[in-house]
Amino acid sequence: MDALPYTTTVRPDTGLTSPKLGIWLFLASEVMLFGSLFSAYVLLRSGAPVWPDQSATLSVPLATLNTVILISSSVTMVLAWAGAASGRLSRYRLFMGLTLLGGALFLVVKWIEYSDKFSHGLYPSTNNFLALYFTMTGLHAIHVIAGMVVNAYLIGPGARMWTKDHLRFTNRVEIAGIYWHFVDVVWIFLFPVLYLL
Amino acid sequence: MFLRHLFSTDHKVIGLLYGFTSLFFLLVGFALVVIMRWQLAYPGRTAWIAPEMYNGLGALHGTIMVFLGVVPLAVGAFGNYLVPLQIGAPDMSFPRINLASYWFYAAGGVIMLASFFAPGGAPMSGWTSYPPLADFAPSGQTFWLLGMLCLIFSSLLGALNFITTIVQLRAPGLTWFRLPFFVWAQFITAFLLLLAFPALQAAAVLQGMDRLAGTSFFLPSGLVVSGERVEVAGDGSVLLWQHLFWFLGHPEVYVLVLPAMGIIAEVITTNIRKPLWGYRLMVYSLFVLGFLSFIVWAHHMFLTGMGTTISAFFQATTMIISIPSVVILSALILALYGGSIRFNTPMLFALAFMPMFGLGGLTGLPLGLAATDIPLHDTNYVVGHFHYLVAPGTIFALFAGIYHWFPKITGRHMNETLGKIHFAGSLVAMNLIFFPMLLQGLAGVNRRLWDGGAAYQFAEPVLFMNTMMSHAAFLLGAFQIFFVVNLFMSITRGRAATTNPWEATTMEWATPTPPLAHGNFEEAPRAYRSPYEYSVPGMSADFVPQHVADHMATESRSHGA
What we know:
The complex is a heterodimer of chains A (197) and B (561). Chain A has 197 residues and is mainly alpha-helical. Chain A has helices spanning 18-47, 54-57, 60-85, 89-119, 128-155, 161-164, 166-196. The termini of chain A are far apart. In chain B, helix 3 runs antiparallel to helix 7 and helix 8 (238-272) runs antiparallel to helix 11 (345-368). Chain B has helices at residues 2-6, 11-41, 51-86, 95-114, 133-136, 140-168, 181-212, 238-272, 279-292, 308-335, 345-368, 370-376, 380-410, 416-442, 460-463, 465-493, 550-560; strands at 224-225, 228-229.
């Protein structure tokens, strides 16, 4: 397959490469997905006669830790891209590895939180707050896993493109990064809404 | 050879895969409704059509027709095949994502069909899957949710691909206001798919949690089912589902309509030998339609008691959204004035589209106002209304498109005589089916009755129509045989076509026939003019294609003089 125009070069009159436009459109759709769930949260909470004390039910310290982990992994993602853009393979590998580690740590903390809830008999069926908590963080965790799959591909078999088509490879890392930042941003909304408010 | 096509990343092959798959699903959806109509004409005569079975047929008829038939044909097939050609592009921006989109669609289709064999039978909560019924329905409903998630993901991949392709891969010189109207229609449609569908995705996840994890997103407290109190946490909201569903559902209506309008605009301009009347106004109307379609959804919910203030808002937006629709339809009708009309098969379908679609639109007005919607809600009137929009509306447009672009795809014409029989028969049969629905609905007959209303005394004066409507439906099926035979026979035996048999101006006709497997065009085209330069004064031919340079057009002028 011949490469289509504007895969790596910017189209002058639109100022965009196609993959970058594509990922932003994808994220627009994702905004509507999570937006719908946040709307469901608002509608259910405003209609509920009683609502549990969120910060007493969930662990704010663990969530704060997870926030720090996820934001740090966004920083390492940018550094990985910078490493790729400047052609330093070892730096790219280091920071992409750290990004993957961040994602894994986030999931481990999430796992601890979930199993703690289950061991206290708190399930999605317990009440609507917990139902929303498990659904929204669960869907977010699926997004984290999807991002990790992409990142693992880019550090593993996908890295063969490093020498073959370096510019395109760097762009791929950038696109994966944009997605990763989005996953981060969703968490930054989830954290106050589910843990603090 | 065949397998290679199933995994090709060429937009034309994917478009044809979409085309044949969606035509198959249209046939399946139609077969389901034929069984339903048999039941309505002769209630109780066929033992295996039990009420649960009837509900399943109804739910899957709606789901299959909308999500597996019409939209994939209008967007997946026509959009995929034609958009890159009309903008002079070698392919879609993301060919592999395009292929993935098809396979998610196919998977969604298989899951939907498999739901018939699920324990407890097919999903039976209607195509809208309203809870709390849907929360307690047998496992077929879970199949429905899973199938829907696949279809939504498929349309997301398709939509972002369409938008990127139209923004990034337009040929040099093809500025925004030189785009064919069909491309504009697909562009706005893609935004609707991209931004509206996720609401149903979220809703499907929530309903899945209700069904599988025992949550009560859509279950209020103290719910009693079959005399027993349901043991759930409660405090859920059935309205939440309706809001999320119709936030998708209404833009979805325009997903069904806009590509049809795009096809009609192309077919009409070609066959009247005149530019499109009010091109810019029509494009602006598309934008207004697209935007407003996101803020009319609650007109499906007037009966939920959501309050007069909210009703007033949605009534107002609903009345306003009729304006751009009327602008587009009027512009298409006005375009006919003074044209020299060719009455070939695609044009006949296009000409019938306009009054039929108009009837569908006008019968929608009483449904958009709460006072008149309350007696009409959930009656056969609603069914008649939206079938006028989708069947002799959108599906006629799709037929017009198939007859119109068939020569480009295969290099052969479809048979005109068979086409005209197909057209005339379909037009008569469809009106015999759908017009009585309006009358039955006005008489108050509910749309979901297994016996067609026989149990209700007030339905008696209009009950005799059921048999006639059903026979018309069987007749409609019979006339589709002419189409199927014509379609397959013409692929090999049709009259040979030139590269531009209709003498059309848009760029898909600048390709060889069929377009080249890689890159479509022999050399990358360039656009020099607006899309519909028909009958330009002083030119020798009555059409000047978009890709023909000015000096070439002038040469032909001097040659002609």
